[in-house]
Design goal:
The protein is α+β, with helices and mostly antiparallel strands. It has 16 helices and 18 strands. Helix content is 30%, strand content 24%. The longest helix is centred in the middle third of the chain and has 14 residues.
Length: 444
């Protein structure tokens, strides 16, 4: 904590405050700076786990990989574990996160009981529903522009050592979404309690719900850190297919191949995979490769060699009301040449909602995730802009971890501008931290 505050004091008053960290799960470029960032090297650990209270105190820069490693020996897990190992708890809370428990547990920030925040004023403030409640409620989706999480106390839930999976094939998107809606409403499938729920769409005629049930029953389990690939394992012609994973491997089932994005680096080719070390089959490795690709513009150089135009990056997660989900996915498949796409249902736990990401607490949404590139259009960000318009037309919302193109007034209306400004003035009166629009849209 002392090093953090000393590094804050060392930043010139005219320079923006930023974190000094080696990894990131943001997918938008930003301006470079020569000013040193905040020293968070002492904020990467789990402080304590209380098995009786089912809570954990965690430093803000602790990764979910380290957090899960500390809680699973107690038979406990965070209520929501985002898909990638290097996502930090503080990052998931200030930048939102989601996973297959979100249909029953909401979003990661909703399990935060209290948190210590380094504000733009250089003060450590403890925020909770009862103390500095305005900052507590505005912190989610503020992306470090209201402060940085130093310590968080979160709820945990009991988990069994295994997850029994059922992958249900659908030939119609409408039927899949209807089945998803029933599970969210009842919490059951074929009269069995459902603990985990997400889905994958390969085409309008091929889609799957992946239904997970915790179990203590021992038995054979699959291992998708070797030659087999998880998302390919769910595919089949008709009906249902079953599988089993350890709880650890279930939580990280998407990390090994960065969902399906490892294919872009050849990691899914059987021969290359055989010689690709297992320790490097993880999202952080692919992220480093992607960063090199961006730095040297490798992808567009290869496109030019083949006489093709450059590519536009379309890496987004959007929340669509479940009753409009089929409409959005149909439009997406017809207009954006990206597949597969991920589906993850969610309902907020908190009845009051969260002002900087104002989705309705009494409504089911489906997170639609798609991560690839498309041929560049006539204008900058043409495909991303079209997606933004369609999401707004359907009363949805878009996460801000990647490229955004909103005009200031539209951004203000979508992301709680009035509330944000009030909290910003109180906790960052000298604007030491970037403004949310400047960071999310202007890429500063």
């Amino acid at each position: 904590m002392e090093r953090l505050l000393e590094s804050y004091a060392a930043v010139p008053a005219t320079a923006p405050i930023r974190l000094a960290k080696r990894t990131s799960n943001l997918f938008r470029t930003r301006e470079s700076t020569k000013v040193g960032g905040l020293d968070t090297s002492g904020l990467t650990h789990v402080i304590s786990v209380d098995p009786a209270a089912r809570t954990a105190d965690v430093a803000g820069m602790c990764t979910y990989e380290d957090l899960v490693a500390a809680t699973l020996p107690h038979g406990l897990s965070p209520l929501v574990v985002p898909q990638l190992k290097t996502i930090t708890l503080g990052g998931a809370v200030t930048g939102l996160g989601i996973e297959s428990t979100s249909f029953r547990n909401g979003l990661p920030h909703e399990s935060v009981l209290e948190l210590d925040i380094l504000t733009g004023a250089g003060e450590i403030v403890t925020a909770s529903p009862a103390e500095h409640a305005d900052l507590y409620r505005a912190f989610p989706n503020s992306y470090g522009t209201l402060g940085y999480a130093v310590r968080l106390r979160i709820e945990l839930e009991s988990v069994e050592p295994y997850v029994a999976l059922t992958h249900v094939r659908f030939h119609s998107l409408a039927e899949l979404v209807a089945a998803m809606d029933r599970i969210v409403t009842t919490g059951r499938f074929d009269d069995v309690r459902v603990d985990y729920l997400d889905g994958v769409v390969f085409s309008a005629e091929e889609s799957y719900l992946c239904i997970g049930v915790q179990t203590a029953a021992s038995g054979p389990v699959s291992d998708y850190t070797r030659q087999e690939i998880y998302y390919r394992s769910i595919q089949h012609d008709d009906g249902a297919k079953t599988d089993r994973l350890s709880i650890h491997d279930y939580l990280w089932r998407w990390d090994t191949d960065w969902f399906w994005c490892s294919e872009a680096f050849g990691a899914q080719h059987p021969l290359i995979r055989r010689f690709w070390p297992r320790r490097y089959r993880r999202s952080s490795s692919y992220w480093k490769l992607m960063r090199l690709e961006r730095r040297f513009d490798i992808g567009d150089r290869l496109e030019r060699l083949h006489g093709r135009p450059p590519r536009e990056r379309v890496i987004q997660d959007v929340e669509i009301p479940i009753e409009r989900c089929v409409e959005f996915v149909d439009w997406f498949l017809a207009n954006v040449p990206i597949e597969p796409i991920w589906l993850c249902p969610l309902r907020l736990r908190d009845e009051d909602g969260w002002p900087l990401y104002p989705i309705s607490p009494d409504r089911t949404y489906v997170n639609v995730g798609f991560w690839s590139t498309v041929p560049i259009g006539a204008t900058e960000g043409e495909t991303n802009r079209g997606i933004e318009r369609r999401v707004s037309d359907l009363d949805g919302h878009k996460s801000l971890y990647s490229d955004a193109y909103y005009a200031p007034d539209e951004f203000d209306a979508l992301y709680g501008g009035a509330t944000y400004r009030d909290v910003k003035r109180r906790y960052d009166p000298d604007s030491r931290l970037l403004d949310l629009y400047a960071k999310a849209v202007q890429r500063r």
